[in-house]
Design brief:
The complex is a heterodimer of chains A (226) and B (211). Chain A is mainly alpha-helical. Chain A has one domain. Chain A is built from 10 helices and 2 strands. In chain A, strands 1-2 form a two-stranded antiparallel ribbon. In chain A, α1 packs parallel to α7 (125-155). By secondary structure, chain B is α+β, with helices and mostly antiparallel strands. Chain B has 2 domains: 3-52; 57-200, no CATH class. Chain B is built from 3 helices and 5 strands; from the N terminus they run ααβββββα. Chain B has a 5-stranded antiparallel beta sheet with strand order 1-2-3-4-5. Chain B starts with a helix and ends in an 11-residue tail after the last helix. Classes of the chains: A mainly alpha (226), B alpha+beta (211). Chains A and B meet through α4 of A and α2 of B.
Chain lengths: 226, 211
């Protein structure tokens, strides 16, 4: 079986996007997307865990039997997240102070277990690593988009505290769009997250439907021409 | 017997789970062991930074982290007190106080000088509503500096509260519970200092209990 990397990339970023298409991992999605920076940090941390868990699980897939696969995957993922948590606390302590409470949430992100089940358990190590990368990128993208919208409406800024996450060189990302804006508390609280996600899902559905209609119209006209 | 057949045996599952358990435990032990020192150092530095925030510059020249001792409060909970000294003169004490806020405990670090006046208070942990209750953080507002220089005598006990309760401290629009919790915690800290004033600087230093 040859691996179609173009399809893996398209699935991760759009067609099977963890948040927008599979609607998985909503707990971290709602909890951290109060700003673009938080979304980016959480997305990247999840991506690292996804890649590592996909690699490990696909490399032991020969030995893991169907009957006990779920406990095996959960133990492996939990171990991995704990190690990431310890390493970040030790060597990236400032970042850890911003993201620390969310790292443990990666364990309960069913997207990680979902990819282990749906992809890593039956594909090669390299393909699984690619799947982890693109699923992680798609998740990061979704979190950043939701985070930016909530941050803009909620506090009138974009990427505030980005330099804390990425280093002082990235302070140019921090933009105050609406100076002196009082803020809309609702957007920062969980209901704002649900509202933004709902609207984005509706927008994605609309785009998908139009695309399908256009394809159908092209099909019928092609048939008519023939 | 080949591998395919072996995989179907019930014993294989148990062995597999056992091996995974052992391997992951070993990985965790290794990760814990190799990060322990760095994490301790980073946490000690965090503590040092927050200690500095509640003590004026130049007040003390000792290593507060090493000059720590533990007291048991009236309610049975333990509190670690860091003593600030200049030479051998006691200058102030720093300790944590906590009180129940709107969502969970609000934890603050406060510094008190030898006469029982507040040198500084900083909220170090809370889960109050963003945009309303979080103005107690120094990053979000200067409200917390209203405690500087206050003591049990000034204002008197009747005025140790938020304005809504007849006290002297501001509450925030839409959030009274949070400032009330901080005021209560700080007042509790002053009471604790007054109750143990005589032994705070004389009790021998002991290693601070890890939280």
């Amino acid at each position: 079986m040859t691996t179609n990397y173009r399809e893996i990339a398209a699935n991760g970023l759009w067609d099977q996007n963890v948040v927008f298409a599979q609607v998985l991992g909503l707990c971290p999605t709602m909890a951290v997307t109060t700003s673009g920076t938080n979304g980016l940090g959480m997305g990247l941390a999840t991506m690292a865990v996804l890649i590592a868990s996909n690699i490990i699980i696909s490399s032991v897939r020969m030995f893991v039997t169907a009957q006990v696969r779920i406990p095996v995957y959960i133990v492996l993922i939990a171990t991995l997240v704990t190690i990431v948590d310890l390493v970040m606390n030790a060597f990236m302590h400032d970042l850890y102070k911003v993201l620390g409470m969310f790292i443990a949430l990666i364990v309960v992100n069913c997207a990680v277990l979902g990819r282990a089940e749906a992809f890593a358990a039956r594909n090669t190590v390299v393909a699984s690593a690619a799947d982890g990368l693109f699923m992680g990128l798609g998740f990061t993208l979704a979190l950043v988009v939701i985070g930016l919208i909530r941050e803009l409406i909620g506090t009138g800024t974009l990427f505030s505290q980005a330099s804390l996450l990425l280093g002082p060189a990235f302070s140019f990302l921090e933009i105050t769009i609406l100076p002196g804006y009082g803020g809309t508390l609702l957007m920062i609280l969980p209901p704002g997250g649900f509202a933004v996600l709902g609207l984005l899902l509706a927008g994605r559905q609309y785009m998908e439907r139009r695309r399908a209609q256009q394809a159908e119209a092209a099909n019928t006209s092609a048939l008519a021409a023939a | 017997m080949n591998f395919e057949q072996l995989r179907e045996k019930i014993g294989y599952h148990s062995v597999l789970l056992g091996v995974i358990g052992l391997a992951t435990s070993a990985a965790l032990a290794l990760a814990n062991h190799s990060t322990l020192d760095s994490i301790r150092a980073a946490e000690a530095k965090d503590l040092q930074d927050s200690l500095k925030q509640v003590l004026p510059d130049g007040l003390a020249d000792n290593d507060l982290l090493k000059d720590a001792t533990e007291f048991t409060k009236d309610d049975g909970s333990k509190v670690t007190v860091y003593r600030a000294r200049l030479g051998s003169d006691p200058k102030g004490a720093v300790f944590k106080v906590a009180s129940r806020g709107y969502a969970g405990d609000v934890v603050a670090l406060m510094g008190v000088d030898v006469k029982g006046r507040i040198l500084g208070v900083r909220v170090i942990k809370h889960q109050e509503t963003p945009g309303l209750g979080d103005k107690i953080e120094i990053a979000k507002g200067t409200w917390i500096t209203a405690f500087d220089g206050k003591s049990l005598a000034e204002p008197d006990t009747a005025h140790w509260g938020v304005k809504k309760d007849g006290g002297i401290f501001d509450q925030f629009a839409g959030a009274t519970i949070t400032p009330r919790a901080v005021v209560k915690a700080v007042k509790g800290g002053l009471d604790f200092y007054a109750a143990h004033k005589d032994e705070i600087f004389t009790k021998p230093a002991q290693l601070a209990a890890k939280e």
